[in-house]
Design a protein that fits this description.
Mean pLDDT is about 95; it is low at about 1-25. Helices cover about 40% and strands about 15% of the residues. The longest helix has 27 residues, at about 355-385. The strands form four sheets. Strands 3-4-5-6-7-8-9-10 form an eight-stranded mixed β-sheet, covered by helices on one side. Strands 11-12-13-14-15-16 form a six-stranded mixed β-sheet. It has about 650 residues and is an alpha+beta fold. Bound molecules: zinc ion. Zinc ion (ZN) binds near residues 130, 178, 180 and 305. The site of zinc ion has 7 residues, from loops.
């Protein structure tokens, strides 16, 4: 049965892809846990404090109501959200195909509904990957973060209204610039109410730039890679997706965006709808624009996404700029100092609360030290000359951090975060000149396999290693055989089997997804994409024209543009912005204002450009219908438009690109 899946990656603001996947066929290919995997997973049970059930108590505390099966119906057959697919997590003992530590986290993230956190403070959890927090003000309610999609946010708000007075939303606060915290805004307020000043929207300084621009330029690649990290195309189940670590999954509705009316630019205290809020800005931490909030009346501290019940990412596997572990630690320390002793409930915009001042202080200290440890110890080893893989292999958390459930690597991991620190400070090159300019993957793989005696010899030896449970090595060496010959079925199967066992052993939800998606694509190839799009109307409208021309530059096919020189004026009549676009040396540059020596000049409305970007119309149609007025040589425009690449949204990852 084919089902349509709409993926919106949570970090990148503007990732949408509609995909088709055949789930039962995928499931049929999944293997059982090998003996080495059973052993590794059994060992986890003895290594961690599973008898400590405090998190389950905290995650259920204050429960008021839930949607039956957590079901939010959609317009089509695919629901916006559905917790029934995670019913398999009911069994206490982890199956052999799931790391027991991840199983525990997946069970915690399956607890969903409306919860009373404290006087006048409520949370809706488990109806999307993130939480919605509601603060009851004097006139109405303040909605802190609006989930990823409007449908999920609407359902969350309705769940609240089912138990509490139906007071209007007086304010929205975005804790940070990631889409799973703002994308549902139109589900809780209307654009008209915001425009009329009836609802204010607060966000940290720099919110809009980071919410949109950051993820557009590399958007196609991030979107594709996010399919590996979150596993939206994997069937859920004991041999499939169980969790992302940070939450269950991504809701499948409409991503919306309303810009903030009020930016928080300094650490300041504001009274919003009668509620005093102390803002602590934390730029350059989990997100480039983020803030924590303290509510003195309620003795509640909201740590946004800076402190959650897992180790977070200094590097996120979908691909992004490296985050600063030192700054992250610093701001947690500052929050501890400012609010720790004055806090009875610590909440965040993912996961469940922590109750009690003593516990909160201890929790904040350990979170502070976790990020400092990763940053500083990676730097220590880097300064000893260790390379990224060596640092990842060497680093161990001290026992005082390693045995804390809230610090386990369910989303970020110590291994990939350690590599991130290296990348932040030293970049991709390890200074070994043999790695400066090696052959590219497929060419190197062909040589390596030939040197090793050919594919059959490599596969035979790798099978022995597979039986011994050496999955990391088998995955590496089979990658060589697949890259040398992507048509080698036997190699693909063995490569997939190795990745699958690694997935079954992984403690991180993200690693499990990465491995299982890799296995799936080695077996069946990348899923067929039906209607790719990387932009939505709201996020596109928030894109500046500078962003647009930068994106256009990224799409320019350099070789095709070779030798061409063009200058084209663009006059956006409705917004009064003018650009001169310059093509020379296979580089597309622009200046503000019009050029006198342009070969062609276009006059159009910004809205027309947006329609073209959304593929509702084309340049040619818009020119024919008069929506674009062309002066000068219209052939120049046609020529320019012929120079841009369309990106393949489903490019190969586990096999060489054809
Ligand atoms: Zn988030």
């Amino acid at each position: 049965m084919a089902s349509a899946v709409v993926l919106r990656a949570m970090g990148p603001a503007v990732l949408v892809a509609v995909l088709a996947v055949s789930s039962p066929a995928v499931l049929a290919q999944s293997k059982d846990a090998e003996p080495a995997t059973r052993e590794a997973n059994a060992a986890v049970l003895n290594g961690l404090p599973f008898s400590d059930r405090q998190d389950f108590e905290d995650a259920r505390r204050g429960f008021l109501a839930a949607l039956p099966d957590g079901l939010i119906a959609g317009p089509g057959a695919t629901p916006i959200w559905n917790m029934k697919r995670y019913g398999f997590l009911d069994r206490d003992e982890a199956p052999t195909t799931v790391n027991p530590s991840l199983w525990r986290q997946a069970q915690l993230n399956a607890i969903h509904g409306l919860f009373k956190v404290g006087e006048r403070v409520y949370q809706i959890r488990g109806l999307d990957i993130a939480n919605m927090t509601i603060i009851e003000g004097e006139e109405g309610i303040i909605v802190l973060d609006t989930l990823l999609t409007a449908e999920a946010a609407r359902a969350a708000l309705d769940l609240y209204y089912g138990q509490r007075p139906r007071k209007p939303v007086t304010a929205v606060i975005y804790s940070h610039s990631h889409a799973d915290h703002f994308g549902g805004v139109k589900g809780v307020v209307s654009e008209a109410d915001v425009k009329a000043g009836r609802v204010k929207i607060y966000a940290p300084d720099g919110f809009m730039e980071h919410a949109v621009a950051e993820n557009v330029i590399a958007g196609n690649a991030m979107s594709r890679r996010a399919q590996y990290m979150y596993g939206p195309l994997l069937p859920s189940g004991e041999k499939g997706q169980v969790d992302t670590g940070l939450g269950k999954n991504l809701s499948r509705g409409t991503l919306t965006l309303l810009g903030p009316t009020d930016l928080i630019r300094t650490n300041e205290t504001r009274t919003i709808d009668g509620v005093e809020i102390v803002f602590q800005l934390t730029p350059g931490t989990e997100a480039p624009a983020e803030m924590n909030m303290y509510f003195p009346q309620f003795r509640v501290l909201d740590m946004a996404e800076n402190v959650t019940h897992n180790m977070h990412n200094l590097y996120t596997l979908r691909g992004a700029e490296i985050r600063d572990g030192n700054a992250w630690s610093h701001y947690i320390g500052e929050a501890l100092q400012l609010f720790g002793q004055r806090t009875d409930v610590l909440i965040a915009q993912h996961h469940w609360p922590t109750f009690g001042s003593d516990k909160i202080v201890a929790y904040l200290k350990k979170q502070r030290d976790l990020y400092k440890f990763i940053n500083d110890q990676s730097l220590r080893l880097l300064n000893q000359g260790l390379t990224p893989a060596e640092i990842a292999e060497t680093l161990r958390l001290p026992a005082t951090l390693a045995n804390e459930w809230a610090l386990r690597g369910y989303y970020g991991t110590l291994r990939h975060n350690a590599r991130a620190v290296y990348q932040k400070y030293l970049g991709w090159y390890d200074s070994n000149p043999a790695n400066l300019d090696p052959l590219p993957p497929a060419a190197a793989a062909r040589k390596a396999v030939e040197y090793m005696g050919g594919a059959q010899a490599v596969i035979a030896r790798a099978r022995e290693d597979f039986r011994r449970g050496e999955y990391r090595w088998v995955a590496s060496v089979m990658k060589e055989v697949v890259f040398a010959d992507p048509g080698n079925r036997e190699a693909r199967e063995l490569a997939a089997d190795a990745l699958e066992q690694l997935g079954y052993q992984a403690e991180a939800g993200t690693w499990r997804n990465e491995y299982l998606v890799g296995a799936l694509e080695l077996r069946s190839g990348p899923p067929k994409l039906r209607a790719p799009s990387t932009l939505t109307a709201d996020t596109l409208a928030a894109l500046s024209l500078d962003n647009f021309f930068d994106l256009l530059g990224v799409r320019l096919n350099g070789p095709r543009a070779e030798g061409k020189i063009m200058r084209i004026n663009w006059d956006f009549t409705d917004v009064g912005e003018k650009y001169a676009l310059n093509l020379e040396n296979s580089a597309l540059t622009y200046t503000h204002g019009l050029a006198e020596d342009a070969q062609a000049s276009l006059a159009l409305r910004r809205a027309t450009l947006d329609s073209i970007m959304l593929k509702q119309t084309t340049f040619a149609e818009a020119a024919t219908s008069g929506q674009i007025a062309v002066a000068g040589d219209p052939a120049k425009l046609v020529e320019l438009l012929g120079l841009f690449d369309d990106f393949d949204p489903m490019f190969e990852i586990v096999a060489p690109k054809q």
